[in-house]
Structures are given as structure tokens and as C-alpha cells.
UniProtKB/TrEMBL annotation:
InterPro entries: AB_hydrolase_fold. This is Alpha/beta hydrolase. It comes from Paenibacillus aceti. Gene3D superfamilies: alpha/beta hydrolase (3.40.50.1820).
Length: 296
């Protein structure tokens, strides 16, 4: 079943619900639409699954009912520059669950959609479990990301009237791109909405809310998930895996399961692909939600 749902800002998003309704439901706001042809080939060069959403859904629906949509894609197509606040994002997610007649559900988000899951968990009692990938639930790098998003927004403003140097972006050799000097034209509203989001998280203390999270919860990151940004992006380091490793014992004491995905290439992008994530989160969900693992 797929429906078009009007969100709190009046924009419309496509939402799907598949799987046996007697199963537990998992919300997947990361379910990107499949792409094909040259666009798919370009994504593969960056280690991105061009059918990411499809593979997540198909990988889970034999054991779960899956509530899926592409919230990030929606926000890039329909930016909300002044009002993409944690409260409004959570209201969107709750509205989607209500419109699809889903009461209780688990949540999986990656990167900024992982921090959204944490905001959701402290604002509702409808979550049955929480999975945060690629963003730590304790000592999260909110201030560093504020710097990065601010710098990105300023570059977007500065580059609006500058020609984009296509020769700088060699899609066939991503590893050769000079990220410190590249100029990419981005919609200022797309970038400003994330400035708004992080600005509204500057006073958020993720240590003070841990006691509110009495549900099963998993956090994970790739072994190489450390992003060092150059001067153009504020000269900050967003050390996702370092923060997780540093706080692993404390997180486990607070009831979190913590997984570091091993691999020399397991960076922020590789650690979000279905081939990597599905075996981890599916087994964890089955265990935590007390599902018997069916023999095939």
C-alpha cells in the first residue's frame, strides 16, 4: 500500500506500508527511490546502492511490516529552510504513522536521520526500539555539524552566481576530487534547512535524556567513520566512530547495544549500505522484539 501524505508544512510525500500486519512495524525514513542507468552507475562508483530503499524493504518484510519513505529526498526536493526543527520533523514522522494507521513501531535512521530518531524517542512513547547508525547517541557532534552546515550554506550563497566547474567533479574517480577547492552549486534553501535544524540542537544535551530511553536501542558506525573537513568546511573533524568507541562502556551501561562495523573501507557511506546494515539490524530486531527466527 502506498499513499501520498501531506506533511505539517503542506508538502506531500509518498509513503508505503508493506508486509504482514501481524508483524511488528519498523519505520524506514531512509528508503530512497531506486535509480537506474548512468545515475545508478555513478552512485556505484561512490559505493552507494542505487536500489538502497528497495533492498532494505525486501530484506525486512519477511519478518516485519515496513513503513517506508524517503524523508531526506523529500526535504531536498521540498526544502523547509526556516522551520526544519526537531519538533517539526518529529511531528512529520508521527503524522505519517497516524495517517498509515501505525500505532507502535521501531525506528531506523542513519546519519542526520539517526539523530532525528533520538529526538523522536524522547517525544513519544510509541517507539518499540531505536536504531541509530552513523551518529552517536552520546556526545553527538552537534557543534561540529553546526560549523559544517553553516560553512556549506555560506558556500551555497557565495557560489549562486559562480559557474560550476564540471571538470572538477570527476565522477569516475571520486578519490581524486579535491574537496577543499571544489565549488558545487547547491540550492541555498536545501543547505539552510540543516543550519536551522542544528541551530535548534545547540542546547540539546544528549546525556540528560538517556534515562528516558527505556526501549531496546542499537547504535553502530563503520570502523573508518571519521570525516576530516578542510578549511572550506570549517576545519573540523566529525569523528563518529571515535565518539562511539570512547563512550562504548558508558552507552552499554545505559542499555545501548554498540556495534563497530569492521573493514578498512567501512566509512560513513559504506556503513549505510543495505549489504552491510541489513544483517546487523535484522538479527538485532528479531532478538530484541522476541521474534523466533524462522527456518527457511
Amino acid at each position: 500500500m502506498e499513499r501520498i501524505i501531506k506533511l505539517t508544512d503542506g508538502t506531500e510525500i509518498k509513503v508505503g506500508l508493506v508486509g504482514n500486519p501481524v508483524f511488528k512495524t519498523i519505520m524506514l525514513p531512509v528508503a530512497k527511490e531506486s535509480v537506474y542507468g548512468q545515475e545508478a552507475e555513478n552512485l556505484k562508483l561512490w559505493g552507494v546502492d542505487p536500489e538502497l530503499g528497495k533492498h532494505f524493504i525486501e530484506g525486512l518484510l519477511d519478518e516485519f511490516q515496513v513503513l517506508y519513505f524517503d524523508y531526506e529526498g523529500h526535504r531536498f526536493q521540498n526544502p523547509n529552510p526556516e522551520n526544519l526543527t526537531p519538533d517539526n520533523i518529529v511531528n512529520d514522522l508521527i503524522l505519517i504513522a497516524d495517517e498509515m494507521n501505525v500505532d507502535k513501531f521501531s525506528y531506523y535512521g542513519y546519519s542526520w536521520l539517526a539523530l532525528v530518531g533520538l529526538q523522536l524517542a524522547i517525544r513519544t512513547n510509541r517507539l518499540e526500539s531505536l536504531i541509530m547508525g552513523g551518529f552517536p547517541p552520546l556526545d553527538g557532534p552537534y557543534k561540529e555539524m553546526m560549523v559544517v552546515t553553516n560553512k556549506t550554506y555560506q558556500q551555497a550563497l557565495d557560489n549562486q552566481n559562480s559557474p560550476v566547474c564540471d571538470e572538477q567533479v570527476n565522477l569516475e574517480s571520486p578519490e581524486e576530487i579535491d574537496w577543499d577547492n571544489i565549488k558545487v552549486k547547491i540550492d541555498t534553501n536545501q543547505t539552510k534547512q540543516f543550519v536551522t535544524m542544528y541551530k535548534n540542537l545547540m542546547d540539546f544535551d544528549d546525556r540528560k535524556i538517556q534515562h528516558q530511553l527505556s526501549i531496546p536501542k542499537l547504535t553502530f558506525a563503520g570502523e573508518k567513520d571519521t570525516i576530516v573537513y578542510g578549511e572550506n568546511f570549517g576545519s573540523v573533524t566529525v569523528d563518529i566512530v571515535g565518539i562511539l568507541q570512547k563512550n562504548k562502556e558508558e552507552l552499554e551501561h545505559s542499555g545501548w547495544d554498540v556495534e563497530i562495523i569492521k573493514g578498512n573501507e567501512m566509512d560513513h557511506t559504506k556503513a549505510m549500505q543495505p549489504i552491510t546494515v541489513l544483517p546487523l539490524i535484522k538479527a538485532w530486531l528479531i532478538e530484541k522484539l522476541k521474534y523466533p527466527i524462522r527456518k527457511k
